[in-house]
Specification:
The protein folds into two domains: about 10-45, no CATH class; about 55-150. It is about 10% helix and about 35% strand. It has one helix at about 35-45, and strands at about 55-60, 65-70, 80-85, 85-90, 95, 100-105, 110-115, 120-125, 130-135, 145-150. It has a four-stranded antiparallel sheet with strand order 2-1-10-7, with no helix packed on it. It is elongated and about 65 Å long.
Length: about 150
């Protein structure tokens, strides 16, 4: 069974499922029927899609304010601010899991919200570079604004 650990997504195979019973469970306190184990494994697999792999908080000036990830404090993303209300967050392409094993990392999806009176216009991802555009709260003109980016 492969050892998938965050940031990789798991599959039923990660948990050795699906399992089959070779006989009736005798002791419900110490034995888990295959059907029950398979349901638990399926729940764990589905939870992997709901967990952000990283959370990045960026100031309106384009500075990294906070970074937390399932792989730890390093490597951190690179932040750039090419213009008013424009930010790029470059995520690492490989990371080490808590067991020290290397994993290729690809941004699957993002969620972003504004931390100031400005609003986020959109975010898009190309090859682990997430571009975030922020607007002022009235009128919709480009304006600098702090934001938090959730990376899935």
């Amino acid at each position: 069974m492969p050892a998938a650990i965050l940031p990789d997504l798991s599959s039923l195979d990660t948990f050795g499922a699906p399992k089959k019973d070779f006989g009736e469970s005798i002791d419900p306190e110490s034995e888990c029927p295959a059907a029950e184990y398979n349901r638990i494994a399926a729940m764990l697999v589905s939870l992997g899609f709901a967990v952000p792999r990283a959370r990045v908080t960026v100031s309106s000036a384009g500075a990294l304010l906070s970074f937390k990830s399932v792989w730890g404090a390093s490597p951190v993303p690179t932040i750039a601010k090419p213009g008013t209300g424009q930010y790029t967050v470059t995520m690492p392409s490989s990371v080490a899991d808590p067991l020290g094993e290397a994993h290729a990392f690809a941004v699957e999806a993002t969620g972003v919200h504004s931390n100031t009176a400005s609003r986020v216009a959109n975010s898009r991802n190309t090859n682990n570079v997430v571009t975030v555009d922020t607007l002022n709260a009235v009128g919709g003109a480009a304006a600098d604004g702090a934001f938090t980016l959730l990376v899935y």
